[in-house]
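Convert to structure. Protein one:
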Amino acid sequence: MKPFIYDYTLEQLQDWMKENGEPVFRGGQLFDWLYVKRVTSFEEMTNLPKPLREKLFNEFQFVTLSEITRFESKDGTVKFLFGLHDNHAIETVIMRHSYGNSICVTTQVGCRIGCTFCASTLGGLKRNLTAGEITAQVVVAQQMLDATNERVSSIVIMGSGEPFENYDATMTFLRTMIHEKGLNIGQRHITVSTSGIVPSMYKFAEENTQINLAISIHAPNDVLRSKLMPVNRRFPFEDVIEACRYYLAKTGRRITFEYALIGGVNDQNEHAEELASVLKDMLCHVNLIPVNHVPERRYVRTPRDQIFEFQRILERNNINATIRREQGHDIAAACGQLRAKHMESTTG
């Protein structure tokens, strides 16, 4: 199969031009067609010589994201289920906020992390996405927004999959997104979320970026976290927190801790007190997430009053905490829900 043109950074496109006897500046022209003009074929790239366009057509292909279905929420959230070239499916979500449009992208088909409250893990991991398949999700979303003169202003890598288990593709994607000659998304408007893949956390600390880091912890101790997140057996909670401290010392950038509140499991006052103790003196923010109901799981949501009490306990202990605003609740916008329904319908 021909490689995807979106798999290549600007520098790699320039290198390709040089290796193929073309002027290096053609790489910049190609990059502009892909991310500024956002065309969908090489034939449309009219300032490239026809022989070069033919060569590109023979060497590369565009990512095919075939729209299987699209749901639009009352709050403006749009959720896509895209089909890939190999008949797998992925989800992408556009979320509209007062401050702009955010897109949530997927980095893997399925997920092997195994969080017991998440629909993404149903069916396990099928494969990693290429950098181009991640990039195409943003390009397609931007093409949709072009119709109303809007733009993607922020990106969250919080869709299905574990981005730090697809590290190289994720970083290539990020370099393309932040490039000033491309979509030019501000680094501080991008957040990458991991379940705590410790070696990649250390690696990311060395990347020298302004991209935000979020860590899914969902429990204040090792025993409970192992029950909720099997990945904790590979990378224990203590090691994850130590990696966070290294990241903070190296970058000076605040970490977001994501904590899904599950009724009667990890949402009691003592859990909040214990979490505050673990995070004390860390430059951090806790994002409390009322768990979404997944039919295949048995967890229930934390009562509203207890959610606010959990937040109050953290704040009394000088831990900044917010409750995630729910979006797309009426269209199954949580990670993996739409794909799970699709898998069920196609497998009978």
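Protein two, convert as well:
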Amino acid sequence: MKNNTLHNLNLVPFVSVDDMMKIVLEIGVENVLTGIAEYLDADFRRWESFDKTPRVASHSEAGVIELMPTSDGDVYGFKYVNGHPDNMKTGRQTVTAFGVLSEVETGYPVLLTEMTILTALRTAATSAMVAKYLAPKGARSMALIGNGAQSEFQALAFKSILGITDLRLYDIDPASTKKFMHNMADQGFAITACTTEQQAVEGADIITTATADKQYATILTDNMIGAGVHINAIGGDCPGKTELHRDILLRSDIFVEYTPQTRIEGEIQQMDADHPVTELWQVMTGQAPGRTDDRQITLFDGVGFAIEDFSALRYLRDQLERTGHFEDLDMIADPDDPRDLYGMVMRAKANQQE
């Protein structure tokens, strides 16, 4: 166990990639996913208590770098995240992230952590939590269009939270599908590798799209979508990137996280600015209907929102004492006199000379 001083305000617990993997493996991937989903559910139900703003994005030809902040009045959190599709060509991740939690009362950070792995976990947990409210009852099969870094987490989240056992896979790169099948071979799924998107969606109760290209795309066309399915569209996450043909949206009841952000980044950027959508927290608190009949097409236009990262960060912080997988960083200056920062520096110089 590493130094375990969670209550020393001058030392900030830091969770490295290695620590994160140890935490996930110690608790269990599916247990982490269900745990994060519980925190998400609780935070969505108190949605109105949070500060909310669309993420602050810096776009370039290569990709995007974003900051995602929020606060519930007691705790402040933010995530730094990028999206660079061409990184894969040089062996880098297309998405990387880190996050911070801080006390609102003092402004002191109380957690610094990697969030590349944690983002994959929270995205999958969010998808499955949403599907609890929108997917057809008794759903057991899911098409996974896009078998990259997010796909295994999505599959395990839907298995642990909804009981999905049958998977139909498609990716433009067969190596990604092969990778997925290897990773999930002993996880209790019946897996079918498909050669087209059309084949993948046939008979599926839920359709998840999670592709990486930052462009307008038509991964699914209207003729592929039958009545009664739930679409988990999580690949679109920035201006100029979509996965679904506009006609699918016209046939669907659309559910979003935070409407102002989704209109900029989601599938609904294709639609008129007043196209009707429902925010998920309204469904979860009984203020709006979710799935109302067996033939309804429900569409989660998921772009990822800061409150979801906040939930994941809260969950992680609550696991540190029990797992001990973190280290303390000396990040906060602590002079004997809070007004004498310069004196602290000079005393350090004198100590070095001794």
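The first helix runs from residue 17 to 27. The two ends are 34 Å apart (CA to CA).
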